[in-house]
Design brief:
The protein folds into two domains: 179 residues, Phosphorylase Kinase, domain 1 (2-Layer Sandwich), CATH 3.30.200.20; 227 residues, Transferase(Phosphotransferase) domain 1 (Transferase(Phosphotransferase), domain 1), CATH 1.10.510. 33% of the residues lie in helices and 12% in strands. By secondary structure, the protein is of the alpha+beta class. Keywords: ATP-binding, Cytoplasm, Kinase, Magnesium, Metal-binding, Nucleotide-binding, Nucleus, Phosphoprotein, Serine/threonine-protein kinase, Transcription, Transcription regulation, Transferase, Wnt signaling pathway. This is Mitogen-activated protein kinase. Belongs to the protein kinase superfamily. CMGC Ser/Thr protein kinase family. MAP kinase subfamily. Belongs to the protein kinase superfamily. Ser/Thr protein kinase family. MAP kinase subfamily.
Length: 429
């Protein structure tokens, strides 16, 4: 990363290159697991003024791969802080790709919630003729829920409650904005060493569709976390698909293994009906004919929900009661994020989060001052009306280019890619 072109001592860029200083700012290594990350975090803060000395031993490096794009851990040269840099490559290949990226970009700039990852900055784009990829700066998180679940690190019931509370708190906000995430899974739930959690990767997100006759894409949600209505070919679905995914993750936090781990979508559906029993015809009303026939051809299954108590010793009556409200076959009967947050199982998670983890409450000499709204929503909703009139790649390219420049107005010194750095050369591969 380099600071922007206002500073006169930077050499003028070659055509097509973003301007920037020749030396890459030195980063601090980010550890994969949350426990190791704590150490790295403290190490970084103690040695912020030794950034240049760390150059050789702690390089910029990739830390994850999203639905569309790669994420790197880098240093912001303006303040020496570690941040995440997401590269959205090949943005302008076709109109569908352009629209999807613009939607994700607009969402990242719209979000204002502590449990939802948002854009801190967007790198200064080059001249429009050389504008091929977009780089978004977000907060750097140290791990994700997938890494934590598969690690040997013990997870107490307090951990599970505070994680689930934050997932639902972020989801209530997203759903209040009219947004379906459509890829909720442990790898898209970023976690810091202090257990603060943020929902990320909006590459598949979209605004809810009120018109049930409008078809929605089936190619969403990682299979293990895919709701039965999608598996059964429903052409329309709601934000209830995200709640199903959260139910699967809740069970995975309790049992430390994937709840429905199938080899194919049909087997995925069979595993779900093994647990929930054969659904009623009413629950299958939106399913495609083939999926309904598959269910009716098979043997009639009784529900086996009590097996959820065997997930672990933490699968208490309260835990299983909430889990069973999320893992409901009929999406219209599935609990909402708002109602799930009111479940008594999450009372302790709420208390813990707002007592020592959140940014919305604060401590004074006379005690803790709590916010008036523990689980805020957004008003107005996210508006995707900008998508209606996008008709060509060149047009969208110009609009995105202008959007990024407008985002930077009045902001700090703009950042841009330093094309001379070794890290950048591996980033563009």
């Amino acid at each position: 990363l380099g600071s922007g072109p206002q500073q006169a001592y930077f050499p003028s860029p070659a055509p097509g290159q973003a301007p920037g200083p020749a030396a890459a700012a030195a980063p601090a290594q980010v550890q994969a697991a949350a426990a190791a990350a704590v150490k790295a975090h403290h190490h970084h803060h103690q040695h912020a003024h030794h950034l240049q000395q760390q150059l050789d031993i702690e390089p910029d490096r990739p830390i994850g791969y999203g639905a569309f794009g790669v994420v790197w851990s880098v240093t912001d040269p303006r303040d020496g802080k570690r941040v995440a840099l997401k590269k959205m490559p090949n943005v302008f290949q076709n109109l569908v790709s352009c629209k999807r990226v613009f939607r994700e970009l607009k969402m990242l700039c719209f979000f204002k919630h502590d449990n939802v990852l948002s854009a801190l900055d967007i790198l200064q784009p080059p001249h429009i003729d050389y504008f091929e990829e977009i780089y978004v700066v977000t907060e750097l998180m140290q791990s994700d829920l997938h890494k934590i679940i598969v690690s040997p690190q013990p997870l107490s019931s307090d951990h599970v409650k505070v994680f689930l509370y934050q997932i639902l708190r972020g989801l209530k906000y997203l759903h209040s904005a009219g947004i379906l995430h459509r890829d909720i899974k442990p790898g898209n739930l970023l976690v810091n060493s202090n257990c603060v959690l943020k929902i990320c990767d909006f590459g598949l997100a979209r605004v809810e569709e009120p018109d049930e006759s409008r078809h929605m894409t089936q190619e969403v949600v990682t299979q293990y976390y895919r709701a039965p209505e999608i598996l059964m070919g429903s052409r329309h679905y709601s934000n209830a698909i995200d709640i199903w995914s959260v139910g699967c993750i809740f069970a995975e936090l309790l049992g430390r293994r994937i709840l429905f781990q199938a080899q194919s979508p049909i087997q995925q559906l069979d595993l779900i009906t093994d647990l929930l029993g054969t659904p009623s015809l009413e629950a299958m009303r939106t399913a495609c004919e083939g999926a309904r026939a598959h269910i009716l051809r098979g043997p009639h299954k009784q529900p086996s929900l009590p097996v959820l108590y065997t997930l672990s010793s933490q699968a208490t009556h309260e835990a299983v009661h909430l889990l069973c409200r999320m893992l409901v076959f009929d999406p219209s009967k599935r609990i909402s994020a708002k109602d799930a947050l009111a479940h008594p199982y999450l009372d302790e998670g709420r208390l813990r989060y707002h007592t020592c983890m959140c940014k919305c409450c604060y401590t004074t000499s006379s005690g803790r001052v709590y916010t008036s709204d523990f689980e805020p929503v957004t008003n107005p909703k996210f508006d995707d009306g900008f998508e209606k009139n996008l008709t060509s790649v060149r047009q969208v390219k110009e609009i995105i280019h202008q959007f990024i420049l407008e985002q930077q107005k009045g902001n700090r010194v703009p950042l841009c890619i330093n094309p001379q750095s070794a890290a950048f050369k591996s980033f563009i591969r």
